[in-house]
Amino acid sequence: MDDRVEIDRAELRGAPIRPWSSLLIRDFSLIWTSSVLASIAVQIRNVSNLYQVYELSGSSFQLGLTGFFQALPHIIFGLFAGMLADVFDRKKLIAATHCLHLVPSIALGLLTVTGAIQVWHIYLFGMISSFIEVFSWPARMAIIPRLVPLSYLMNAITLNSMILQSSFLFGPAIAGVLIDYAGLAPTYFFSATLLIPAIVAVLAVRSPGKPEGERRRVSLRSMVEGVEFIWAQRIILSLFLLDFGVVLVGFYRPILPIFAGNVFKMGATGLGILYGAPAVGALLGSASLLMAGDIKRKGAAAVIAALFFAASLALLGLSQWFWMAVVAVLVLGFTDSISVGIRRTVVQFLAPDTMRGRAASLITVFAQTTNALGALLAGSASELLGAPNALLLGSLLCVFMIIGINRAIPQLWRHRS
Questions:
Q1: Which residues lie below 8 Å from residue 51, measured CB to CB, with a gap of 6+?
Q2: N- or C-end of the chain: fewer Cβ atoms within 10 A?
């Protein structure tokens, strides 16, 4: 490791942890800046894809397929991507994925300019983009513990999580303005332009990106080892199960249109507010983690956050006024971001460097699979019971899940770091 990097880290050891502490470390700030630019670029392109599919087809079904094709690679290739992050140089993987992200942006821009664009083109390049992102995320997560002191790990991972939360807010806003005032093709080209400084920032990182220890080989056995590691680490397993159980029975996003349209009669404007509130809550939750510095009782904090999540589900189900529902979904976003920050921190803290890529990818695979199953259950329950009653039932089941997991793995509540 570069001597200057070691000095930067040594100077910070023992210093009070402030919200911006990790950003004072040169290499982390470069990776963070690179990830911010790349994430906003991807969100701009994804929103442009959705807008263009609907403009070309006018079909809500084809609009749904766009999201499906964007999510599919995460489920199929997630574990394989994590294995690569534990075999190859993570810094080079990040730079390579940023470079590859230029392809769908430029291709879609050129197809739009020439008028040759068709819906299947957007599906194809949407899948390519998601495929690239699958391999980017584990490398970006796994390199963080090499860049900051371990006492700064939650601060760094929370700052990293805020990238995705912020991109969901700023990416669509930027895309909307650009599409309205410049058109789709310039919007695609602008998303490509953002990737250039992202690539430069990664290449400027001095810290090594190679995983520690002996070089591993790409194999099926390496993928299985990732699952075995999670199973053996009871704290990590309990956090995964906690997230899986809570999201499975409490996935509320697919039924928000019912509240906006049928319950509160607020139309598209109300739906936009309901969908935006969780993102605001998530940013506030991440900011709270940053202000906290470091939480020693991370297991207890995750359990308490899950209980507040369950209570917020009930509040949404019982809401009689629109702004009461907005507060409920804002708290849902807040508590979810705290759970995510704690889970990612614990995983990266407990995992050896040779396992961090696979551990990070398992988080993504779990999340994507749980979201898909949770959406199915939420829709079915709303059809049978009505949306408010479905959320009340989900809240009750959440509490049972939390109690059951704590009884099965009591180490979770007692866990300290």
A1: 175, 179, 184
A2: N
